[in-house]
Design goal:
- By secondary structure, the protein is of the alpha+beta class.
- It contains 6 helices and 7 strands, in the order ββααβαββαββαα.
- The protein has a 4-stranded antiparallel beta sheet with strand order 1-4-7-2. A 3-stranded antiparallel beta sheet has the order 3-6-5.
- The chain starts with a strand and ends with a helix.
Length: about 160
């Protein structure tokens, strides 16, 4: 069983099945704005064979990658395993292609090239180590990550820590 890491603001029970939420994703990432325009463009350029971000559970393989790219979700870090139906697969993409790419500081061509390269699944040659994000249609919560349990008093407000 392959396990990945998933960051969330929600406290989840062990065994919870995480599913995509296209509407929630769109509200958060497809709104006009400097930092979010790239995600709308990514969807516009997504090949039909690739899973939409709106139809995905996001996962990372390492704590270093997760804490560097969790986009503000820090309260809980879970170990999860993908839930796949026959014919489904986990997809892997390097965030290095889009890290720091926004509507304000990139030309349309370079943004489009970055998006296409992201969807290609190739590692970004500008980074020494790829920052792989994995997409699955669903995933099961296995446990709260050990490091999250150790750092819980730092990551969470005191009133929630007592719960």
């Amino acid at each position: 069983m392959t396990t990945f890491l998933h960051a969330s603001d929600a406290e989840l029970d062990i065994g919870t099945i995480l599913c995509s939420d296209r509407e929630r994703y769109a509200r958060r990432w497809w709104r006009p704005g400097r930092a979010t325009d790239i995600f709308r463009r990514m969807e516009e350029l997504r090949p039909p064979s690739c899973r939409s971000h709106g139809d995905a559970v996001f996962m990372m393989a390492s704590m270093d990658d997760l804490t560097g790219q969790a986009f503000g979700y820090r309260r809980y870090i879970y170990e999860i395993t993908p839930v796949l139906l026959p014919g489904e697969r986990v997809e892997r993409y390097d965030l290095g292609w889009i890290d720091g790419t926004t509507a304000d500081d990139s030309t349309l061509l370079s943004r489009d090239e970055s998006c296409r390269n992201y969807w290609s699944g190739r590692p970004c040659p500008e980074n020494a180590h790829p920052c792989w994000e994995y997409l699955a249609p669903a995933a099961r919560v296995i446990r709260l990550h050990a490091q999250c349990r150790q750092l819980r008093h730092v990551l969470m407000p005191r009133s929630l820590d007592a719960a």
